[in-house]
Amino acid sequence: MIVRLLQSLINGNRSEIIQQGAIEENKKKEPKLVDVAEQALRNKSAMHSEELDGIVKYGWSKFRRKRFKNQTRRKVWDVLCNALGAPDNNMADEITEKIVEVAEVDNFYQEIFDKEKEE
């Protein structure tokens, strides 16, 4: 009796396993559908993403340079106002340009002028 019980459990499990295997095999054979519109949009977005990355790389460096130049000009203008009283705009622009050019090469000067005005 115990032998029959064990055989029925084993044979019952085998038939379930065989049925499950057949179902899984049918699922695997179904072809994968392709969404043409999604694929076209994915290709187009990849192309635009590369273009956008190039623009960001170019524009970000210009933005950082302009921001650094404005900060430097403010500091130069403050120093010239204290020293000369009424500084000339051309003189402040020339000094600012020279500092910006040097700061692009030497990080020491960039760190000095890049910090926000501490009050």
Set down the secondary structure blueprint.
Layout: H1 2-29, H2 36-84, H3 89-105, H4 107-114
Helix pairs in contact: 2-3, 3-4
How would you characterize this protein structure?
- The protein has four helices and no strands.
- The protein is an all-alpha fold and 119 residues long.
- It has a domain of 59 residues.
- The longest helix has 49 residues.
- The protein is elongated and about 110 Å long.
- It starts with a helix and ends in a 5-residue tail after the last helix.
Mean of pLDDT = 77
Structural class: mainly alpha
User: From N to C, what is the helix and strand string?
Assistant: HHHH
CA(first)-CA(last) distance: 94 Å
Quick take:
By secondary structure, this protein is an all-alpha fold. The protein is about 85% helix and about 0% strand.
Characteristic terms for this protein:
single chain, about 120 residues, elongated
